[in-house]
Amino acid sequence: MMKTFGTESFGFLPRTFIVPEDKEELVKVMKDSDKAMIVKPPNWYCGIGIKLINKIGDIPSKKNKMCVQEYIDNPFLINGLKFDLRLYVLVTSIDPVKIYLYEEGLVRFATAQYSNDPAEIGNNFIHLTNYSVNKSSSQFVFNESPGEYEGHKWNLKTLWKYFEEELGIDWKPVWEKIKDVCVKTVLCGHEQIKKEFERTLKSEYSCYKLFGFDIFFDENLKPWLLEVNNIPSLHINTIDSYVNRPMVAEMFNILGFHIPKVIATKHQKNIAEKLNLKHPQQHLGHDKTLYTRLRTREDAAKCSQFSSDKLSREDYLDRIVTDLSPADTRTIIRAEDELSQTQDWARIFPTADSHHNLQFLSPPSYSDRLLDAWETSWGSGQEMRRKGRNILIDLCREGHHLRVCDGGS
Fold first, then answer.
1. Which helix (H) or strand (E) is 70 found in, with range?
2. Is 220 exposed, middle or buried (0-12, 13-18, 19+ CB in 10 A)?
3. 229 has which bridge partners?
4. Exposure letters 306-317 (e unless 16+ CB within 10 A, then b)
5. Cα–Cα distance, 186 to 211 (Å, whole number)
6. Choosing a second label site near 234 at 20 to 30 A (CA), which of 148, 296, 314, 359?
7. Strands 37-40 and 16-19
8. Pairwise CA distance, residues 328 & 45, whole Å
9. pTM (2 d.p.)
10. How many CA atoms lie within 13 Å of 24's alpha carbon, on the beta-carbon side?
């Protein structure tokens, strides 16, 4: 992506080498610069095996792949300490792409005063912010009071409060830059993820992924992506549980797991009473029709019409949402259902203003274009979204969204 679109769009990842393949290039870079490098073993966790190096002889010589990344040596400091952010990104669909960012997170501090002294290169308490590393420091202090400027781990909203109250910094532009980093990072892997999705999945139900993004600020408050965690840790100490418990609960609300049909049929009366449903439909449980990938002839024809690589945004923006097909309706219903459950999760793609990122898909799918057009038409405010949802309600009353094959329901 960086080679294709340049550093202006994708210059948020420190220069990275994979050894042994890139060892020759890494050696050349280290000869020409005195910058330190940070070595990260693959598939490890909790900071295990991470170390800083500044000598060519310290480059790993093992046959196993290792990630070596340029060390950012001009960090933004608080009380003289380095810190990074652990943020949570939720991908609920890959076609269309739907990405959410949790608006809380964790702020993880190193435990020793920052120094660029080469003699301190081996002091992980200075250079690493991993909780698992710093908790063994004699200086580490647990934070038992979310919202207070104490200890070596804060919640994200406390950091934003510190920016405002103590530093006089407006954090909102920084947060917008972080959103941009998160969206573009997911889009970098879109092509590979989509291929695997299409190869292995027959239903769009319960297909999601929670990632842990580690973000770091340099002295200019530029956000850098350090790494993406495939299986983010969810600790239970005070600050972590303060962030993670509501995060996970709301995530499951967004994902919209259904009551299994067998259980719903057996306990329909009790379920209807608990949900205050006065006139429950015949079946309350999971209906696989809502998530099917089967398409009617109408769906297929419309998809073919608006899927050309050469199609400009102006060619589809108005027309694709004029007459919604059954599959269109299901796609948009799922997007609106998810959005209706958000409180501290925010959808960062697609939005009414995110269409500029469609250029990074190769190319955008029919469903990506459909949601782009829907958000442009109905996503600009609560009143417009209400009107858009009323269109969906009318179609659902007609059973339009349940049509999955021609000549049947």
1. strand 66-70
2. exposed
3. 212
4. beeeebeeeebe
5. 10
6. 148
7. unpaired
8. 41
9. 0.93
10. 1
